[in-house]
Amino acid sequence: MELLPRSPAEFGSARYWDRFFRQRGQRPFEWYGAFPELCPVLHKYVRPRDKVLVVGCGNSELSEQMYDTGLCEDIVNIDVSDAVIRQMGERSAGTRPRMSYLLMDMLQMDFPDAHFQVVLDKGTLDALLTDEEEATLAKVDQMFAEISRVLQVGGRYLCVSLAQGHVLKKAVEYFSQEGWVVRVHQVASSGDKQQFVLPVFVYVMTKFRKIPGSAAQILEICPEEQDKPMRVESAERLVAAVKDRQHYALLCSQISKTPCREQVSLDLCDKESGKPRYTLHVVDSSSVKPSRDNHFAIFIIPQGRETEWLFGTEEGRRQLAASAGFGRLVTVALHREQHYEGMAGIQAELSGKVMELAPPGLPDRQQVPFLSVGGDIGVRAVRHCDSSPLSGEFVVEDVKGDGSCYFRRLIFLQNRNVVQSEARLLAPTPLPGQKKRRKDKKKPIPPEPPGAIDKSCLCCEHHKAMVAGLCLLGGPDALPGELAVLVVGLGGGSLPLFVHDYFSQARVAVVEIDPSMLEVATRWFGFSQGDRMQVHVSDGLDYVAKLAAEAPAQYDAIMFDVDSKDLTVGMSCPPPAFVEKPFLQKVKTILKPEGVFVLNLVCRDARLKESVLATLRDVFPLLYARRIQGEVNEILFCQLSPAGRHGPAELGARARALEGALRQPG
C-alpha cells in the first residue's frame, strides 16, 4: 500500500490526505509524540476551561486522550480531509459531546477573532514547511497569521515538531518579531529508541500585544531534564541549542547499536549557567571479552588530574579502559568553575544521563559501577584568576596529585587541558606545640592546606630533559663552574629558578613578554630576582636581535620554552617566528662556540615538524632530540661543535643520568 506522497507539495493537498486516511482505515496515525510524552508540557499550558483549536488533527488520538483524561474538553478539531473528519466525528459521537470535528482549511478559518485560548499543532507545520520555496513560505505566513488572529492575547500556540532548522527558525523569527514570547520544550523520550531516534520538541508561542518600536525578544529553551527555562539571546542561538540536542540524540542512538570506532567526546553543561560541567569521553575496548558484569562502567577523573597522559589523551584513555576490564568506559572530567558534592552527588547527578551512552547488549537492570582513583573526586582549589591582553584568561590552582602530594599549576584557559607551569608544594609544618589528631577518630580529617613551593623539584618532564641537556656543556671532568644562561619564556618560573639554585655559579637572564606572568611567578610560584637572576620584560624576538647586534657569543646555554597563542597552527611551542632561519642565525650569534641551544618543541603537524628540524640543521651542525614519553613534547639540543673531548654517546649517557637524578624526590 503506497501511502507516501510523490512530492513534498502533496503534504498540502486535501486529495492526498483523503487517499491517505481512506487507505489507512481506522488505525490512528501518530507522526511523533505520544500523549504520555506530551502530557507534562500540555499540562503546563492547557487549562481545563480553555477553548482549544487543533489544526490538522488527522486521525491522531491526542484530542481524544486530552478529553478522556480531563485535561480539556472544549476542543475543536479541523482538517482539510473530509474522509478523516467524518471518521473522527463518528468515533467520538455520543461519548465526547463537547468536542467537535470540522472540515476547514487552517489557511482560511471561519472562526471569529480572539476565539481560542490555545491552538495545538502536532506535526502540521512540519508537513507544510517541507522546503523554503517562496510559495511554501507564503502559505506558512498565512497559517501563522490565521493562528494569531483566532488566538486571544495571552493565548498559546503549541506546535509539536521535530524542529528541523528551517522550520524552527521560521517559527521563532515570525512570532518573536510580533512581540510574542517564544519557548521551546524538549519532550522527554519514551525510551523506545528503535521507533524514533530524533527528539520531539514543543514550541510554545505566547501572544502579547506588539509594542510599537520595541525590539526586545524573549527566547527560551527548556531541556527535557529540567523545568526551569534558559534564556537565549537570539533566534540563531536558540536554533543552535536545539541542534545540539538533536546531535546528542543521534549520537546516543548510534552508539547504543554499534561499538565506537573512535572515541566520542561531549560536554554536559550546568543547568543554571550553561557552562560546561562535565566532559565525557566514550571509550570502547576491543581487547575486553564481554561478560555480564563487564559491559559498562563510569570513571570519574579526580579534579586536577584531567591533564595527565592516562586521562587526557586518546591513547591513555584506551589503556585505562583496557586495564579497567570493561567493554565500554565513559571517563568524566570535572570542570574547575563548578562545585561538586562528592562522589555520591556526582553519581546521583549523572546516573540517568550516562545510561543514554550504554553499549549494545547491556543486560536489563544491570548495575553500572562508578570508578575513580582511590574512590574520591580529588582536590582542586583555585588560588587566583586573572587575564592579560597577551595571555588571555588564566588561573593558578592547587591540586592533589597521586598520593599525598599537592601541586600548584598555571593554566591558560584558551588551552585549558595543558599545564603551563607546575610546582610541587611542601607539606605544611606544624606550629610549635600543635598536636596531630588521633588517627582512630571516626570523623575524617580534612586535608591540610599546602605549604610553600618546593624549589628543589622540577615537576614537568620536559623541564627535566632541558636541564639535563646542560651536560652537553661538560668538559673532561664536569660542567663549567660559571654558566651564562638565557631563558626565553618565564611562565611560573620553575625552569630558570631550578637552574639558578642547582648550578650555584649560574647567571640567569629571563625574557618574558607578558608582565602579568612575572607577577604570577613572584606571587604564586616562589620566584624572585637577585644578583644572579634578572628578568627582562620584552619580546624574545626583539631581545635576541638586539643582543646579536650588540654583544655576540655571550651565553653558554639558551633555552626556549615559549608557548604560541595561535591555536590554528599545528605547533603550540614555540611560535613559528622563533624557528625561522634568520632568527635562528641571531640565536647562533649570541651562543658561545661550545654552547648549547635547547628548544622545547610541541608540534603535531608532521610536515611542519620536518621543516623545523631541517631549518635547525641548516644553522646548527649538531642536533640531538629527546622525546618525552607519553607527551607531544620533544626537546631539541643544538650545538655548533661538541664540548670537550667527550663524544655524543658519552655526553648522552651523562645527560640521561642527570635527568634520572632530577626525577628522584627532593
TrEMBL record:
GO biological process: methylation
UniProt entry tagged with the keyword Methyltransferase: yes
Residue span of region Disordered: 429-449
Top-rank taxon: Eukaryota
GO cellular component, one term: cytoplasm
Compositionally biased spans, kind Basic residues: 434-444
Keyword RNA-binding: no
NCBIfam families for the chain: MFS_SpdSyn
Name this protein carries in UniProt: eEF1A lysine and N-terminal methyltransferase
